Amino acid sequence: MNPVRIEFIRQKMSEMRREDGLDDVNPTRPLDGLDVLDVGCGGGLLCETLARLGGRTLGIDASSSNIAIASLHASADPGLSSPQKTKGSLTYEHTSVEDLLAQRGSKSFDVVCSMEVIEHVDNPATFLTNCATLVKPGGHLFLSTIARTPLSYALTIFAAEQVLRLVTPGTHTHSKYINPDELTDFFLRLDSDAPAQDAVPKQSAAPRPWISRLYGGVPSRTEAEIRGIIYLPWKGEWMLVPRGAPGASIWAEACNYMFWVRRPFK
Amino acid sequence: MATTTPQESDVVIVGGGPAGLALACALASAPAIQDSLRVVLVEAADLNKVRNWNEGPSTFSNRVSSITNASQSFLGEIGAWAHVDEGRTCPIEEMQVWDGVSDARVTFSMQDDHASILSAEPETQLARLTENLNLQRGLLRYLDKNGTVELADKVKVQSIVREEREGGGWPLVHLSDGRVLRARLLVGADGFNSPVRAYSGIQSYGWAYETSAIVATLVHNPRTSFQAPNTVAYQRFLPTGPIAFLPLSPTASSMVWSTKPHLAKALLSSDPAVLTAMINAAFRLPEVSLRYLHQRILDSASGGKPLSPEQLHEEIAWRERSHHIDSRSAYSLAADTGGVPPEDADSLPPLVTSMQPGTAASFPLKLSHADEYIGDGAGARTVLVGDAAHTIHPLAGQGLNMGIGDVESLFRCIHKSVLNGGDVGSRTALLPYARERYFENHKILAACDKLHKLYASTAEPVVWARSVGLEVLNELDSVKAAIMLNAGSRRSRKSLSGTQLGVNFGADAVETIARNLSGVSTLTKGVAGMVGDGLQKVL
């Protein structure tokens, strides 16, 4: 699934950098010079890729064994471990988002990613707020997760866990899954200067929220975007559903999807 | 050895043959790869020999390959084809294939109606015949000009060992010049006895054909102005193996004659004039007489009294008379090649007058296919292309094209992986290559193998069935078009950027229909389909 995530991150980053008037973006290094954070990095698959794309990457995970595995894997790769190269860099830290926020302060990263994590945390609103607070103004937050639908139950829990045993049974809890409109809704109400403590900030006369308004239920593509990811069994690979595919919210975003949102500059 | 610090390399290509060089060219052609990957090509031989290869305009190297339009367009796309001396290559505009026992014949031509089914743009050639050295020299010239690939020639791979490291080490390639390369991705383009394949632990299966291929550059008179130019390839399937005539210039052509090893040995040890006459006879005389002549050659070789050219000519003349072959017919070796040609002259290659000295040689034929193309576990970070992955019977001239097809697919994988920040040595990055190529190559290998076996038979019912199949096939334009498509006669339209998506889609749809047609024909026409399915590769 990693290539598909990267495809989305690449597309979106290139698009937004063009939007900001940066025309000379190197196509092989769309993250050049950016501070990138991957929350819940696991074995470091995404982190290594982000570093190769030019990002000064930090991977954090709550499990120390994951960090050990990821560090070991990266140490074999001279493109990631040698310090003198001009490419991005990669470091790992065994910590949580809360601790990192306390340590680094808010607005520390240009790009914050968290792939397939939010459906496992107990308090997604706090988790989201913490991740969002770490994003610099004008920075990006990428998430991937699973929607709470009958289809996702059938595929990710019934098929993957109970029948095919591809995933250890009990890995997922259907009630913890989050729907795309719930994420949109959260960022519609999240002020760009929201205090980290308040999970659901109230709408005061404060600066504008991350998503200003919806157009026919969809945010503007410069503020946020949702794209479904579907598995093509005949090709044996995952595919990023093209933007504006007809009825995508019904079939494509009913299971795995990617979510991107950008923090307003002010 | 442990004292040498390994040099970090992203792609190490072992083998400087056509496949290895083509991959190096492809990697050098993409700016994204230039920026991010260090590519090293290791070759044991002296590449200067290829670089400075210079043959006179009328003489030709004996190792030639037919480059399909698909292969040629890929080489053009990466910019390497421009460095191949096109004056030394020859288009094949028509192909005639016939049964050595029954004379059933099939003709493929780009001039025919069925060719128009292939594409809207006019394509005049089915393939292009190129000396391997000409192609390799062109690729090298391209690499010399676009100097991002490090060429390490006259350097042998002494050993490949796995780095000791927790969590899986990378391959360490020890070279004869004392250097050690640490490879992110190790590409085996090192031929049939591939050291990279041995390191990767990939098994390969296959068998020897008990057949040797005799190659030689043939000299003949030019075609008369009443005839089509020398751009027609001919192949006759004899029970001992097919003999192919491949045009190179108006007065020179190449030959690949697959036959029994002991016969090949006897033929090569006989007088060149005897071999020349035997080549002419092999395209013309009925099978029963050929069998007799083969026996004569074998007997005289083992008896220590080699057959003289005069004796052989007399023998052939006698045989022709008994078969009622008119001495003015194209089927007679005595036919006069000047003036108005006989009616049937176009169904046979021109009479060979001599062989270019020093070009006659032979090599054994075998089939092999690696079980996998990507190394796993202890052999991780390895990938096989070209002859390291598969060797094939040359009857369809697909060996080199399969290698180039591998290179094209692997190059796209690497390119995509680099753009997506992937690790080009990882299994994830390489998997699409194996998926795209394994079945494709297997299909071609299997088809050529079956074809070889089908035509080795002289049993009456088999000959009848395959002949009827061939004759039926010759009348089915759409099936012929499908076969030509599969044989790579159409330029590939896959573009890197993915623009012209609509055009691609249209072209793919046509191809899919054509493929299905060919599939359906295989099912419904039994032997006919089988012959056809294999014949598609006769380019």
TrEMBL record, chain A:
Name a single GO cellular component: mitochondrion
What InterPro entries does its record include? Answer: SAM-dependent_MTases_sf, UbiG_MeTrfase
Superkingdom as given in the UniProt entry: Eukaryota
- Provide one Gene Ontology biological process annotation: methylation
Coiled-coil positions:
none
Specify one Pfam family: Methyltransf_23
> What Gene Ontology molecular-function terms does this entry list?
3-demethylubiquinol 3-O-methyltransferase activity; polyprenyldihydroxybenzoate methyltransferase activity
Which keywords describe this protein according to UniProt?
Methyltransferase, S-adenosyl-L-methionine, Transferase, Ubiquinone biosynthesis
Looking up PANTHER family in the UniProt record yields: METHYLTRANSFERASE (PTHR43464), UBIQUINONE BIOSYNTHESIS O-METHYLTRANSFERASE, MITOCHONDRIAL (PTHR43464:SF19)
- Recorded protein name is Methyltransferase type 11 domain-containing protein
UniProtKB/TrEMBL annotation, chain B:
Q: Which domain of life is it from?
A: Eukaryota
**Where found in the cell?**
Mitochondrion inner membrane
What reaction(s) does this enzyme catalyze?
Answer: a 2-methoxy-6-(all-trans-polyprenyl)phenol + 2 reduced [2Fe-2S]-[ferredoxin] + O2 + 2 H(+) = a 2-methoxy-6-(all-trans-polyprenyl)benzene-1,4-diol + 2 oxidized [2Fe-2S]-[ferredoxin] + H2O; a 4-hydroxy-3-(all-trans-polyprenyl)benzoate + 2 reduced [2Fe-2S]-[ferredoxin] + O2 + 2 H(+) = a 3,4-dihydroxy-5-(all-trans-polyprenyl)benzoate + 2 oxidized [2Fe-2S]-[ferredoxin] + H2O
Which residue range or ranges hold the FAD-binding domain?
A: 9-279, 381-437
Q: Name one Pfam family in it.
A: FAD_binding_3
Q: What NCBIfam families does the entry give? A: Ubi-OHases (TIGR01988)
Family to which the UniProt record says this protein belongs? Belongs to the UbiH/COQ6 family.
Listed name of the protein = Ubiquinone biosynthesis monooxygenase COQ6, mitochondrial
